[in-house]
Amino acid sequence: MSVMTAETTVPAVPMPFVWRVTAVGLVSAFAAMLVYPAAVAALAARGVSASAIGLFAVLQPAAMIALIPCMPWVERRIGRIAAIRLALVMGAAAIAVMVASDSVGLWLLASMLMGVQFAVHWTSIDTALSENVPKHKAGRVIGLYQTLLAAGVAAGPAVVTLFALPFQAAALVGCALILVSLGATLGEVGTRIDAAAAALRRPTLSPARFARTHAGLAAAAVLAGIFEVGTSAMATVHALHLGFSAPAAVFAAAVIAGGSLVAQLPAGWLADRVGLPTLMRACGLGMAASAAALPLADSAPLVFWVLTALWGAFGGALQTLVYLSVAKSRDPSAVGPAMAVLAIGCTLGSLIGPGLGGIAMDLSPSLGLALALTLSAAVLTVVVGRRR
């Protein structure tokens, strides 16, 4: 695996400004995840076909994957803060469209606009933090940020469920939060962040070239996406196969999310003290071992819950470590493309996991998921271990 080690002086940006930008990302992510599940429920309540709802769900990550490679170019053209503001406006516009119209076509367009918002979050906001965080405490800072982000993403659907929010109410709160985030980008914070980004700007690598020259990091991002997000749906299906009730099976996704949430800050703390390549390989091996142990749950159901928690923990930890490999570098030509590749990799992993796991479980309900996850973890961990 190749870990970036180039050293370059970074223009000083006061950490309060950096934290304000990251707070924009945290609040807007919570807002989007507050609206998104409520929108899916609203479509289902209106009797919209399952295929249309599925398309609504797919268009968001598809828009992310399409836009993310373009983000370094967008930032060079209009500036980082302008890109963040534009994405927030698009997120608010998406919500407004869904509130104002019952047209399924317009709701599909809104899903794509929300994907644009997430694309900028994954690149511009995360890049701003990675470029400006003090290197000696990058692990703790990035670990804390990833923990808060995971908590916000999980809290959105939880708030909708807990308070039984109808779509209109969730949309109103979400839109208000996005507009508050937009206001937080005004003033000196925008000037300072843009000035630092411009000073660091050099002729950049393309994301495609970065993926080729840092195949280990790209593979680690895909693996993190498979285990942190992609296992949720298949774990639910496997829980039903084991004989758990439907509510208990759905709880498997919460256990995975909980494991991810708990592991990210300790992973960042360890990364300030232990080599990143060692920790990444340990996560990969832990994923393979925990996936291979899944057949034990047939005779000991408690094992299933332990393993799903470990999947989330290893996936969340690996995602934090992947981002830290960028944050601990000071190579200005690589940070933007690196964030683009890592975001695409995690998103692809979240899509690959359910597809691969579903096919494997159709072939063998008992062993299919264990084999699919074990082989995925083993193969990708080999790639993660490569050095260039």
Structural class by helix and strand composition: mainly alpha
- Could you tell me how far the N terminus lies from the C terminus, measured between alpha carbons in angstroms? 7 Å
Give a quick account of the main beta sheet: strands, pairing sense, barrel closure. none
Number of strands: 0
Write the CATH fold name of the largest domain: Growth Hormone, Chain: A
Kindly state the mean pLDDT as a whole number?
A: 81
Helix count, DSSP H or I runs of 4 or more residues: 15
CATH architecture of the largest domain: Up-down Bundle
Topology:
Elements: H1 15-45, H2 50-67, H3 71-78, H4 80-100, H5 104-132, H6 138-162, H7 167-184, H8 188-200, H9 207-213, H10 215-241, H11 246-271, H12 276-292, H13 301-327, H14 335-363, H15 368-384
Task: Describe the overall structure.
51% of the residues are buried. By secondary structure, the chain is mainly alpha-helical. The N terminus is likely disordered. The radius of gyration is 20 Å and the shape is globular. The longest helix is centred in the N-terminal third of the chain and has 31 residues. The chain has two domains: 186 residues, Growth Hormone, Chain: A (Up-down Bundle); 178 residues, MFS general substrate transporter like domains (Growth Hormone, Chain: A), CATH 1.20.1250. It starts with 14 loop residues before the first helix and ends with a helix.
